Amino acid sequence: MLIIFDVEGVLLNAEYLPVLAQMKGPEKEREIWDITKQGIRGEIDWEEGLKKRVAALRGIGLKEATELGRSLELMPGAKELCSALKRASWKMIAVSGGFTIITERLKHELGLDEIFSNELIFKDGKLDSVNLKVTSDKAAAVLPTLRSWGISKEETVVVVDGANDLKLFDLAAYTVGFCPVDMVKERADAVIEIHDLSLLLNLLEKKFGKAVLANLRN
To answer: What is the widest separation between alpha-carbon atoms in the chain?
Structure first.
């Protein structure tokens, strides 16, 4: 079995760029949040919105940006969920429109098998631009790996929160909205409304049966 997670708002209990914007004051933070929410709701072109947000924060130092990325809170229940799935021999992938500066730590902390994300570009130690490796079509980023692993749609679960994640639903037989926007809520097979990822364990057991999650509670 395979599970695919979004990162910000799912594995991490934070949105990185709005928090980073606090370094430039409350007005800049509001500006970044406004663009972020528009993108999550699917109201603006996602790629354009991301580039616009990064440009608005140009000049922030690498050291500060890195330290902040390492300090972001894991979603409550994330460690419990991922540890249990690992014991049950599930494969775990994270795919993010965010950045390596916040995602790389998750491979170690949560035991993820693969992570796909974008890369912030720093010049002379200052934030300059972004290298887009994951677009609004997040499914395109992970599909080659799914094919190489030989994992089918029937064996795949997707957990997301935002409208820009919806193409991932096409890869999965079971889809979960985690504290999602309305557009995701309408399309997901199941919804979790509380910020606690461990609640997903009961949903998976109910959906796939105890045989598939044989080691989950051990």
So the answer is: 54
